[in-house]
Specification:
The structure holds two protein chains of two kinds. Chain A is of the alpha+beta class. Chain A has helices spanning 6-15, 38-47, 107-117, 169-172, 196-201, 256-262, 268-273, 280-295, 303-332, 337-357, 379-402, 406-412, 420-425, 431-435, 442-445, 466-490, 543-547, 551-555, 560-570, 574-578; strands at residues 20-22, 31-33, 53-62, 67-75, 83-90, 95-97, 120-122, 215-220, 232-238, 241-248, 366-367, 370-371, 510-518, 521-529, 535-541. Chain A is globular and about 65 Å long. The chains are: A alpha+beta, B alpha/beta.
């Protein structure tokens, strides 16, 4: 449970005798705050109690109780556990004040809650849909919203299992193209929205430039060679300078959370692979941690499994960071050559994943209480070769080619600066936060698994620019190698799973938030169980998504060519951004 | 000497064998095309990462003449639909396809592009690229390994080998119509469906009624 010291509980009680009450539902934690007190409470947490980092905002639809709940997780940027607070609003008219003024990092997350759950945040400066398009019918994550292929509330579907019948969903649905329209809809008279509100906000931005320049609005993406997938940036340019930039996403929104709430707990593990598809092992890690929190003593992870988990997660981090550095160099115009060096090492790591898990990218390797299978013979030797011999040498090589390169330094230094205060305010995580001088790493700040046993440094740099983000990634690769060497030396023999592997598990009712330091930053899974075989709510706090909140801030005032480099330095993966 | 220049069935005097070869127009046309099919640099989701790996040194699809990936559809021959096709993205994909010059090919890479894949039931997911574009090769896998992608591309080359100048669609007399771009309405709208639209709505109402009762 949370490490909420008594002193803080007392402080909150005396400061807010009314309107704030501990959440006493069994399996739940934190505080219930009245909507009217929310802004005051959040401000007090930030300024007086030191909880200055808003990690996650999400909504839960408690349909049977006719309530919508918005859940906030805040942390101290100096480390420690979460403080959770919630606001309950009536389901028919869910309105509450926005926290963007207090925590600017709430911006995208509140928009997402509006888009998917229909919760309105009053005072939000940009209250639009974020993942779906304007004009879309309904709010899909509401429990009574049914999609075109709706069969049953929960899997496995009776029609298909255990009988094993297979049919095409199209055959069951009159709208064979996976589409349902409202009853009185006429396509001939429909006028698509076409991002009207978005473009209206991009016009005629006032600048303090003395030279009068005609501003133009430019779309970068969703099909663009440098956007790392189907991501779109709409920028207002004065000459070559970005005066305003707005990220547009949702082009890869594949309904992860809605599908996740239909799935059984186990079925979700392969889906998490496809979130951040460059780092599937860490995604597994975060999700099993969250569910293991709910399971409590039923899922004790054996020693060997803990070590293998850490080893796999650190290999993932290396594979991800070399890829990130390769694509960053691509974005700078060093087209594909650095990428080839990066992919060479990544392939060797993928070989290990393939040997252990059976798949190169979608590993599906972690289980509740252990791992899917043990390492096959010979893999340990390969891992040792990589961790002790090849990777240190190759990272030095990459370092020698790149770090002091004049062009790279000229393009990166002083570009896309984010100050430490801004980074915390915008809820930036991972290398973006640490490059801004905040030494916050979940592995150290709030240790999970067995990370407290290893000797490693938190990579940190202090300029907050693109170059420092590159340096932090380089250093993190080295630290990961250090962890790998220690873990491989100590790797014990023994079981890799407690008890028998089971298809369906009973998860006690309650809520849990499991978070890991993924390669992109803090990856959190918020799971609410109602005691049935499927999660009631399954939310992913995706680092790529929330890091983008700071993108506009970083790009404004820089040249348009730098916007590409800045985006590359955040290192986003669209599978996770859009989910 | 490549197989297409072996002048099968023709006697060529020995002194001219280095200078003259006899082949068919189809063969030489297809030979040129099969080794210069430039893919569009166009990644949708997870499969795009495997596509990048296929382009990199270990697997290297430039061995098959797919050396250059072009981000602009105007310079591309093959569209590798590498990942989940979402409703929000499909208008752009169709527009990109319309912008590609003929001859053009579509490869559906992976389960999602072939039929919706693991995300098929999702409300924002299109059940496969072939709902909108003519797909030439389907590659199974989630994601397909680079080897599978290479195999799929070789199948595409085989397909090119068997095409004939006389029958290919881009040398026919009729104009090639562009594919109508889908529209984002309350849900995805396919303009090709408009004529039957009212029927469909009526049908849906009939099916919905017994449930309400």
């Amino acid at each position: 449970m949370i490490d909420l010291t008594l002193a803080i509980a007392k402080e909150i009680e005396t400061r807010f005798p009314k309107g704030v009450a501990p959440d006493e539902r069994s399996g739940y934690e934190g505080y219930l705050v009245e909507a009217g007190k929310l802004v005051e409470f959040a401000t007090a947490l930030r300024d007086e109690l030191g909880y200055d980092f808003l990690s996650s905002v999400t909504g839960v639809d408690y349909m049977p109780e006719e309530k919508m709940e918005v859940v906030y997780h805040v942390y101290r940027s100096t480390g420690g556990g979460a403080l959770v607070f919630k606001v309950q609003v009536p389901r028919q008219n869910p309105v509450l004040p926005s926290l963007v003024e207090v925590f600017p990092g709430a911006d995208f997350q509140e928009r997402e809650a509006w888009d998917l759950l229909g919760i309105r945040f009053e005072g939000h400066p940009n209250h639009k849909r974020i993942l779906m398009w304007e004009g879309f019918e309904g709010h899909p994550l509401r429990k009574d919203w049914e999609e075109a292929y709706f069969e049953e509330e929960s899997k496995p579907f009776d029609a298909r299992w255990p009988g094993g019948d297979v049919y095409r969903a199209e055959d069951e649905n009159p709208f064979t193209k996976n589409v349902v329209y409202p009853q009185d809809f006429n396509p001939e008279t429909w006028i698509p929205d076409g991002d009207k509100a978005l473009y209206a906000g991009m016009k005629e931005i006032e600048t303090d430039e003395s030279l009068e320049t005609e501003q133009i609005v430019v779309n970068l993406g969703p099909q663009h060679p440098s956007t790392h997938g189907v991501f779109r940036m709409v920028a207002t340019l004065a000459g070559e300078t970005v005066v305003k930039l707005e990220p547009v996403m949702g082009y890869l929104h594949r309904n992860h959370e809605k599908i996740g709430e239909r799935n059984t707990y186990l079925m979700n593990i392969p889906f998490t692979d496809r979130l951040d598809y460059l780092a599937s092992m860490s995604n597994n890690f975060g999700y099993v941690l969250a569910v293991e929190k709910l399971l409590g003593k039923k899922a004790v992870v054996p020693e060997r499994a803990e070590y293998i988990r850490v080893i796999m997660a650190e290999f993932t981090r290396i594979a991800n960071h070399v890829f990130a550095i390769g694509t960053l160099l691509n974005d700078m115009g060093a087209y594909f050559t650095p990428m080839l060096y990066a992919l060479q090492e990544r392939e060797l790591i993928l070989d290990i994943f393939e040997a252990a898990a059976g798949s190169r990218m979608m590993c599906n390797y972690y289980r509740f209480g252990g791992l899917a299978r043990d390492l096959p013979p010979g893999v340990e030797g390969k891992m040792r070769d990589l961790a002790f011999e090849r990777l240190p040498r190759k990272i030095d090589e990459l370092d020698r080619y790149l770090t002091e390169n004049e062009v790279l330094r000229a393009r990166c230094e002083g570009v896309g600066v984010l100050t430490p205060e801004e980074a915390i305010a915008y809820s930036a995580v991972g290398p973006v936060l640490r490059a801004s001088g905040v030494p916050y790493d979940v592995r150290r700040a709030d240790p999970y698994s067995i990370y407290d046993r290893f000797d490693f440094d938190v990579a940190v740099a202090y300029h907050g620019d693109v170059y420092d983000r590159y340096l932090v990634r380089m250093e993190e690769i080295r630290q990961s190698i250090r962890i790998l060497q220690q873990a491989l030396d100590d790797l014990p023999e023994g079981e890799i799973m407690t008890g028998k592997p089971r298809y369906s598990i009973r998860v006690p009712a309650g809520e849990a938030y499991g978070r890991v330091e993924g390669p992109k930053g803090e990856l959190g899974f918020y799971v609410v169980s109602d005691g049935s075989a499927n999660p009631w709510r399954y939310h992913v706090r995706a680092p790529s998504f929330i890091n983008l909140t700071a993108l506009s801030k970083m790009c404004e005032g820089d040249k348009v060519a730098d916007a590409i480099v800045i985006l590359g330095s955040i290192d986003i993966v669209l599978g996770e951004t859009d989910r | 000497m490549p197989e297409i220049f072996d002048s099968k069935g023709y006697e060529i005097p020995p002194e001219m064998q280095n200078n003259v070869a006899i082949t068919t127009l189809d063969k030489i046309y297809n030979w040129g095309r099969r080794y210069s099919a430039w893919p569009m640099m166009f990644g949708l989701a997870c499969c795009a990462i495997e596509m990048i790996c296929t382009a990199a040194s270990r697997f290297d699809f430039s061995r098959f003449g797919m050396e250059i990936m072009r981000p602009s559809p105007r310079q591309a021959d093959v569209m590798l639909v590498s990942g989940t096709v979402t409703k929000k993205m499909v208008p752009q994909i169709v527009r990109l396809y319309n912008q590609m010059p003929e001859p053009k090919y579509v490869v559906a890479m992976g389960a999602c592009a072939s039929g919706g894949g693991p995300f098929k039931e999702g409300y924002n997911v299109v059940s496969g690229m072939d709902k909108f574009l003519p797909v030439d090769v389907y590659i199974p896998g989630c994601p397909p390994t680079p080897q599978a992608l290479l195999f799929g591309l070789m199948k595409l080359q085989e397909m090119m080998d068997n095409q004939s100048l006389k029958t290919v669609r881009w040398y026919q007399k009729e104009d090639l119509p562009a594919i109508p771009v889908p529209i984002l309405g309350p849900d995805l709208l396919d303009p090709r469906d408009y004529p039957e639209f009212s029927d469909k709505l009526a049908q849906a109402a009939v099916i919905a009624e017994p449930e309400e009762a």
